[in-house]
Amino acid sequence: MDMNFTPPWPEQELSPDSLFGCLIRTAVDGIMVIDEQGLIQVYNAACVRLFQYAEAEVLGQNVKMLMPPPYRDQHDDYLTHYKQTGEARIIGIGREVSGQRKDGSSFPMYLSVGDGILYGKRVFVGIVHDLSALYQEREAYEAHLLNLREELVHVARVSELGQVSAGIAHELNQPLTAMLNYANAARRLAASGSDEDIEKVQSVIGKVAQQAERAGQIVRRMRDFLEKRASQRGCNDIVDIIDDAMALGLLGAKASNIQTHFEPEDGLPAVLVDRVQIQQVLVNLLRNAVEAMERSEQRHLTLSAKRQSEDRVEVTVADTGHGIAETITSQLFKPFVTTKDHGMGIGLAISKTIVEAHGGVLTAEPNPGGGTIFRFTVPADATASP
Length: 386
Ligand code: ADP
Known about the structure:
The protein has 386 residues and is of the alpha+beta class. The protein has 10 helices and 12 strands.
């Protein structure tokens, strides 16, 4: 304690059986009184619990010792400024600030400060309410929300792939059938036993391996797509992401006579995204485009990727389908808005959340020749090439 510290009021003022003594001793919130210079005059038991300093360690000391930097260094100037101008940041108002304990750790607190006169001297009375528990609850709640959001994104992804399951079965059947044919051919050739045929067997087995690789790739893409995982951003090649999304989203589309074009601009920078989530947006847009063209005469699906600005890449997916139904244009990106018999109406809502979480925008507009163009942007890392 500052040995020169003498409170400017009679000692009995704070005696245990006085009203004021009882109030500050029993208060659950911290109560402090500081003088015009910011020196602590009163520091109650709740403050001892909150800040870990004993009363004797703080009385007569500048209150800034209870604040973490940078506030600690600004407090004297702040007090002077307030006294000169009456302009208040906390005084008379109160707000959430940080306190610093004796061990150096900080904690959130609600501080309200009143401005008064005590025994002819100006004082400031601070009431400190500990917000740590509330913050912990808030953090837990936010983590819970984030978790729910990730669950929802994942469920939507599973549902998206569920819609192409027939296509997946078809796509896997092709290499499997080819492998079976090659294996039969190899068996026949091997049975003949001639040297020439053994060479052919080797080449046929090579083809079996190629087909197995192709089937494996389909399964790998599906597994990556379906895996439940926390969101993770990294440097990615947008062309790769679009290629993979096309391989998944357009499974079975060949059968519906859709002509696809994808012409990325040359020299695109790497994009800073969660690869699977952006794939999810694309798979959703591709599935919608394919469905919108089911009854169209012209079935053109055109994708593009171009640099929109120094730090943004824009991706478009354009179809020549029936266009957005007028009844839903204003609600297009709202959840549960669908015109399909078996639609869930969450694909676009989730895609929009994903794109916005990446700091981008997702929009739809009519395709001049009929159909719809969806556009979205993703952040680029101008310094990295993919
Ligand atoms: P769902 O596909 O389950 O209906 P979405 O959120 O993906 O859910 O799409 C919502 C609605 O938006 C669709 O039902 C459809 O009416 C409309 N829509 C989406 N994409 C297109 C498109 N490319 N062309 C026309 N309408 C579309």
